[in-house]
Amino acid sequence: NDPKAVVKKSSENVQPLTSDEITPPATDFIFLVAIEGSGHHMNQALFEKSPANERLVKLKVRPHVNDMLTSLYNNQDKSQGLFSAATARDDPDGVNVVEILAEKLRIVDAKIRTAHPYPQRTMVPLNAGGIALGTTGMMSYPNFHGRDRAMQYPDLNTLYYACDVAGVSCRHVVLTRNPYAVIRSTTMNREFSSKHMAIQMYTTMLDVILAQSLMHPDRLAGCWEYSAVADEELGLLMGWDDSNEGMDSFRHTYASLFQGDEDMDSSEKLEIVPQELEVYMLSMELATNRVQSTCRDILQSQREALSA
C-alpha cells in the first residue's frame, strides 16, 4: 500500500470542529500522548521550568496534582488507578475509581479557578510533568514492564469520561519522534527489550494512539515532534507569553534541556536497526507518519474553525 494513501485515508476521518469545542477554561488539564522513548523526560524537565509550574507551586497545588496522578496509574495497587486497573489481578471497582479521580480533578480545578486576584489560564499536567513517577511512571504507551506490558497503556476514552464526570476541561498533546531515535533510546541507551519486539510493540502502540486521536479530535491541544527546534505552541501551552521576550525565554530554556540527535543518515540507521529488521521498521515509520499527519490535520481543522 502507498503510505501517503494510508495517511490520507486516516486523515479523512477528521471531523470539522467548532470554536466552542476548542477554547479551554482557566484550568487546562493536559495529557501527553506518546510511545515510550519519545521525550517524556524532556517534557517533564521543560514543564518544571515553565511559568505554568511556577503558578502551581505558588498556589500550592503541586501536592494535589501529585495525588491526582496516582489515581490515573498506580503501579503499587493497580486496581486504584484508572489506567492501571486494566491489568489488576481482580476486577476493579471502576465506578469508585472514576469518582475518586473526578474529586481530585475538581480540587485542583477549584484551587486554580478561585485564585486571587483573578483566575489565570494554567496548564496542569496529567502525566510527564507530575512527580509521582515511582507509582505512576510517565504514563507512556506502554507504561512500565512486566508480563502485562502490552496492556499497560493509557486510555483517552476513560480519561475523558472521568473529566466529564468531574466537570473539568481535559485535552491532550500528541508527541512523536524519529522512530530510529526511539529504538536507539529504548534498546541501546536503555535495554527495555530486544529490537524486533520493541519495533512491534511501538508500532502497535502508535496504532492505538491513532485510533484514540481520531475518537477525540475536539480534545487535541497540540502536536509536538521531538526535535532541536522549539515548538512555540508548546511554550504558549506551558505559560510562556507570546511576546518576543517570552518566546526568547522559552527557546533558551528548551535549548538548554534538549538532548538528542534526530538527524541520521542511512549508515547510522543501519547501526540502530539491522537490515533483516527493516521490513518491520518500515511499518513503525508508517505508523509514526500516520499519527503525525492526522494530528496536523486535526489542528488545521481547529484553526479553520477559529477563523470562521
* Rounded Rg: 19 Å
Q: Strand portion, in percent?
A: 5-15%
Q: Please tally the β strands and state the result.
A: 4
Which series of helices and strands comes N to C? HEHHHHEHHEHHEHHHH
Largest sheet, if any? Answer: 4 strands, parallel
What is the global morphology? globular
Trace the largest sheet across and list its strands.
Answer: 2-1-3-4
**Helix/strand/pairing category:** alpha/beta
| Regions with little confidence, pLDDT below 50 for 5+ residues | 1-11, 16-23
Mean pLDDT: 89
Briefly say what this structure is:
This protein has 308 residues and is α/β, with parallel strands linked by helices.
Your description of this structure?
The protein has helices at residues 3-11, 40-48, 51-58, 62-69, 94-113, 133-136, 156-166, 179-189, 195-215, 232-237, 244-257, 266-272, 278-307, and strands spanning 27-33, 122-125, 170-176, 220-225. It is built from 13 helices and 4 strands. It has 308 residues and is α/β, with parallel strands linked by helices. It has a 4-stranded parallel sheet with strand order 2-1-3-4. The two termini are 36 Å apart. The chain is 51% helix and 8% strand.
List the helices and strands and how they pair.
Layout: H1 3-11, E1 27-33, H2 40-48, H3 51-58, H4 62-69, H5 94-113, E2 122-125, H6 133-136, H7 156-166, E3 170-176, H8 179-189, H9 195-215, E4 220-225, H10 232-237, H11 244-257, H12 266-272, H13 278-307
Parallel strand pairs: 1-2, 1-3, 3-4
